Amino acid sequence: MQGHPVYKWLSALLCYPEADLLQALPEFEAALHQWPELASSRQSLQGFLDYLQSQSLRTLQEKYVLTFDRSRTNAMYIFEHVYGEDRDRGAAMVDLLEEYRKYGYELGDGELPDYLPALLEFFAHIPSEQAQKLLGDAVHVIAHIARQLEQAQSPYAAVLHAVVALSPVQPQPLTVPPVRDMDEAMETFGPDLAGLEPLLKPSLENVIKFYPKASLPASQ
C-alpha cells in the first residue's frame, strides 16, 4: 500500500510555480476540503491557495526565488539546516538515497534527495507507515524552516506548517548546524553538475538520521 497523495499535493505547492499549477488550483482546493488529514490546516492552506490565485505567474516566480533561492535561512534542503557545510551532510544524503533506492524511487535530473518537495513526493510512493516514520525524523527541520518563513511573513509558511501537522512526532528545536569551509567539502566530495554543491560519494558508510538524536533535549 502506497503513501497518501496528500504528500504529493503538498510537494506540488512547494515547487517552483508554473502555469500548470495555477490552472490546477480548483482541483487543489477540492482536495483540500476532501481530505481529513488537512482539516487542522485547512484555513491557512486556503489562504495560501488564495495567494496563488491573486498573483500573476511572474510575480509568484519572482517571490519564490527571493524566498528560497536567495536565502539560505529558508532553504528547503533538509540537511543544510542540520549540518551546514559539514561533510556529514554528504553522508546523510547517501543514507537517504539508499532509502529512495530501496523503494525503487528515482529522483529527477539534478535533484538532491534532501530537497523537501522531492522528499514529500517520495512519501506519496511508499507505505504510509514508512512515510510517517521518515516524516517523524525530518519534522524537526521542517518545523524550523516553517518558523523562519513565518518570521519572514511568507505565505509558504502555511504549507510547511501543514506538513508538520501530519507528523506523528512533536518537533524539537534545532541546534546550530556546524559550518566548515566549503573548499574542504568540495575537495572531499567534488562539485555537483552545477559546480556548486559537494558531489555525493557512495563510499561513505555513516548512517545519519534527518535529525541528530543526541541534540534533542534530554528527557526529564
Automatic annotation (TrEMBL):
**Keywords associated with the record:** Nitrate assimilation
* Gene Ontology BP term (one): chaperone-mediated protein complex assembly
Q: Which GO terms describe its molecular function?
A: metallochaperone activity; unfolded protein binding
- The answer to whether UniProt assigns keyword Cell wall biogenesis/degradation to this entry is no
Is Lipid metabolism tagged as a keyword? Answer: no
Q: Name one Pfam family in it.
A: Nitrate_red_del
By what name is this protein known?
Nitrate reductase molybdenum cofactor assembly chaperone
Gene it is expressed from: narJ
